[in-house]
Amino acid sequence: MSALLEVSGVSVSFDGFKAINNLSFQIGPAELRAVIGPNGAGKTTFMDIVTGKTRPDEGSVLWGEKSQNLLKMSEARIAQAGVGRKFQRPTVFEDQSVFDNLLMALKNERGPLEVLFYKRSRADDARVEALAEEIGLADQLHRTSGELSHGQKQWLEIGMLLAQEPRLLLVDEPAAGMTLAEREHTTDLLREAAKTRAVVVVEHDMEFVRRLGCKVTVLHEGSVLAEGSIDHVTQDPQVIEVYLGR
Ligand code: ADP
């Protein structure tokens, strides 16, 4: 299976400080991956590079079957090519219903003209309902989003990203601030989402990562320190020293 995203030998410095140091990373088209590492390890900068927000000083970032050079694409083009990113804080429209938030995301996916001349169709309604089902909010469709719990808002935002049909979804600390039940649901949701697309989850919570049950990449000082199953990486003496043993 060839990679969907292939990052090779990437480095980035901020004022002479190497935040990312010769980092290489690959993910397949239907793979779930957890990226962990202590504060300052380079996780956010890594995601910034993939989305085009930060440009590396060296290295390559290739995308898709045609190995397109992501470093030559604008942030907007990278998003159009199928890279979606979910930030830590949910940014749903609180005064709109769950249904309308999902519908809006669906319309946005089709570009400005479509938004302007939009005519709601039964197919769109069905797609919104399917998305709500996927994120576990089928029974909340007509609630105002502001009334949802923190966890439900996070799922809604994931649903809004899924509406845009990303091929790679980058998710930043999805479990932060969630109850245990919400975490469990989030695990299921992300595992399900990764059946048909690549999903990278940046997370601090080791128990959550364990439940994801996927390959783990440990970053430290801007490089990959270890990679493998959660059991493999948590038994790695270097990982224990820099991350778990602190
Ligand atoms: P993480 O997300 O793993 O906590 P970051 O990617 O945010 O790590 O940061 C990696 C390192 O790069 C840190 O030491 C951070 O202080 C530094 N850094 C990140 N962004 C900038 C920036 N814009 N300017 C200067 N230093 C930065």
SSE layout and pairing:
Elements: E1 5-14, E2 17-27, E3 32-36, H1 43-51, E4 58-63, E5 68-69, H2 75-81, E6 83-86, H3 98-109, H4 112-116, H5 122-135, H6 150-163, E7 168-172, H7 180-193, E8 198-202, H8 206-212, E9 215-220, E10 223-228, H9 230-234, H10 237-244
Parallel strand pairs: 3-8, 3-9, 6-7, 7-8
Antiparallel strand pairs: 1-2, 1-4, 4-5, 9-10
The chain binds adenosine-5'-diphosphate.
Offer a quick outline of the entry:
The chain has 246 residues and is an alpha/beta fold. It has helices spanning 43-51, 75-81, 98-109, 112-116, 122-135, 150-163, 180-193, 206-212, 230-234, 237-244; strands at 5-14, 17-27, 32-36, 58-63, 68-69, 83-86, 168-172, 198-202, 215-220, 223-228. Strand 9 and strand 10 form a beta hairpin.
The Cα radius of gyration reads 18 Å
What structural class results from the helix and strand content? alpha/beta
Binned strand content: 15-25%
Q: Kindly state the percentage of residues in helix.
A: 25-40%
The name of the CATH superfamily of the largest domain reads P-loop containing nucleotide triphosphate hydrolases
The count of domains is: 2
Mean residue pLDDT: 92
Bound heterogens, unique: adenosine-5'-diphosphate
Show unreliable segments. Answer: none
CATH third-tier fold name of the largest domain: Rossmann fold
Which overall shape is indicated by the principal axes computed on the Cα atoms? Answer: globular
Measure the end-to-end span: 37 Å
Number of helices: 10
Instruction: Give the class-level CATH name of the largest domain.
Output: Alpha Beta
User: What strand order characterises the main sheet?
Assistant: 6-7-8-3-9-10
Domain ABC transporter: 5-246
Keywords: ATP-binding, Hydrolase, Nucleotide-binding, Transport
Protein name: Ribose import ATP-binding protein RbsA
InterPro entries: AAA+_ATPase (IPR003593), ABC_AA/LPS_Transport (IPR051120), ABC_transporter-like_ATP-bd (IPR003439), ABC_transptr_urea_ATP-bd_UrtD (IPR017781), BCA_ABC_TP_C (IPR032823), P-loop_NTPase (IPR027417)
